Amino acid sequence: MEKQPRLLSSQLLLKNRVFEVTLNRAILAWKEITTKKKRVSGSIHNTFKVDSYCVPVSEIVAVRETEVDSRTKDEGRWQKMSQESTEGHSSYAFTVSYVERGRQHRWRCNDVTFHCSDGLLCQQWVQSIREQLSLLSSRPKHLLVYINPYGGKQQGKLIYEEKVAPLFSRASISTDVIVTEYANHARDHLKVDVDLKKYDGVVCVGGDGMFSEIIHGLISRTQADCGVDQNCAEEKLVPCTTRIGIIPAGSTDCICYATVGINDPVTSALHIIVGDSQPLDVCSVHHNNTFLRYSVSLLGYGFYGDMLRDSERKRWMGPVRYDFSGVKTFLTHHYYEGTVSFLPATDILGTPRDKSMCRAGCYICQHNGQLLSEDSQLYKMEEDISHSAAEMQGDWQMIRGKFLAINAASMSCACPRSPKGLSPAAHLADGTTDLILVRKCSRINFLRHLLRHTNKDDQFDLAFVEVHRVRKFRFTPKQCESDLDLRQGGAGGGKKLFGQICRDHPACGCTPINSSWNCDGEILPHAAIEVGAHCQLIRLFARGIEDQPLFEDYCTPSVI
Ligand SMILES: CCCCCCCCCCCCC/C=C/[C@@H](O)[C@H](CO)NC(=O)CCCCCCCCCCCCCCC
Ligand SMILES: Nc1ncnc2c1ncn2[C@@H]1O[C@H](COP(=O)(O)OP(=O)(O)OP(=O)(O)O)[C@@H](O)[C@H]1O
Ligand SMILES: [Ca+2]
């Protein structure tokens, strides 16, 4: 690795011990060298114990001059250390706030205070660190915050005021805060009213439903500004440039959990402050060439759709509603007939059965997404051509059957209920979704499948379960299948008829013969849908789940 030139180096006091403190463009480091007496088989030896710590500049939250309490002044120590430097008998200090890693991907903001012998040196340190921080161009300075006061356990406002706002102000981030007054308030505000150029990002305090509002607002706004028609399922959507931060305060918080590794408000606030960026795939859902919704986590028909429909009536219960409705839906054991057709993603790295998972800096996402380089533009054009060629050649596969669940997971969907998620090897930004088909089976077998979401066993390694990594898929419930046959027989004309039958058929999407689609926690109004994955359409203030260190020394700043 290239060695960075030193910007500053001084001997400073920390907790009454002398440290050599150095700053370069990338790292703030401090190292203590003390002589200690050690008794070895009866005789005394002098040994050196070296305590060294370092913090990447990119993980420094802020630096400030600190008032030194006269009772704790380190004058005596300074005199011992150097007669010269303590001539004025005064002490000055500055405090650096930085990211400290805890267990299970938790981040905390920790402080370290260095004492200097003179005020000028202290100011020089503060100024130098601030200069380095100001060079970090990906950090947000001004944010628009939406708080859902009714999400999860209704703690959104409190969480923001007590845990997040103080960190933002320490990091000199200014905010405009809107507490939502009704459902879709944030979505509609973003769609039309907000001057997005004023902000470096949008933050939502709430759950997956609140996040969904934000992405609907931002994506629709971006398409409208660029003249893209969302109703056309074949349109290539324009990526949103405004990054989104999620402060988890919902019931499932799966998007936060799967992109950060934990649903913890302080951890998420710190990822926003350091200016992380994680692209995310988005699926568009259409019915009969009409746009319905976007999905980033789960599109689930059958089990998860029925569970959601039941749980909506129990909102008053808070997050446990999902467990009640989950057990009830499990006991009901409904299956649904229909046809799933899908376009497998054959030209990419990775499969849903991989043992390795999507992690921070994921190579598979980078490769499959071919981020923003000139090559990638070329690649994308070729890719588009080859996709449409594949579609025309009829690489679509079709499965007709009776299903307990049809799930499309565009990310792992890891959450506290299932830390590995619905599709553990799914990728956040590879431009695909994992289509999981659970065929009709006995209750006990379905329970085995569900239980495997919570332990190390493979939930796909069962005869009645199959999983495909796809770019697009369609579902047609049995009641609309006659139309599907027509559609395959004749190109354009069939499409019109498909819509006709679906709309006129009383059983389509609204009677108990069919299930409903759970689209990131919202019920869709139609059972017959057409889904397409859009690679890296949005960006979050996150970095993906970090690999855990091999040895469990979680006490950052990292000990060198
Ligand atoms: C025996 C224990 C089995 C546990 C199986 C747990 C599997 C959990 C998989 C979670 C997947 C979450 C996907 C995320 C979806 C979000 O876009 C959406 C919006 O927030 N959340 C939900 O739809 C809310 C989803 C909430 C899912 C709760 C499912 C609870 C199932 C309970 C089944 C119990 C059977 C017991 C039989 C005696
Ligand atoms: N002021 C408000 N009043 C009523 N509903 C609101 C308000 N603001 C937002 N909402 C709606 O509340 C719904 C649920 O919110 P949210 O996602 O924050 O919590 P949750 O459903 O408990 O959590 P999760 O989505 O993680 O399961 C969202 O669909 C959102 O549209
Ligand atoms: Ca994906």
From TrEMBL:
Q: Which GO terms describe its cellular component?
A: membrane
Q: Which Gene3D superfamilies match?
A: 2.60.200.40, Probable inorganic polyphosphate/atp-NAD kinase, domain 1 (3.40.50.10330)
Q: Which domain of life is it from?
A: Eukaryota
- Which Gene Ontology MF annotations are present? ceramide kinase activity
Q: Which InterPro entries match?
A: ATP-NAD_kinase_N, CERK_C, CERK_PH, Diacylglycerol_kinase_cat_dom, Lipid_Phosphate_FormReg, NAD/diacylglycerol_kinase_sf
The DAGKc domain covers which part of the protein? 138-289
User: From its record, what is one biological process in GO terms?
Assistant: ceramide metabolic process
Q: What is this protein called?
A: DAGKc domain-containing protein
Q: What species was this sequence derived from?
A: Aldrovandia affinis
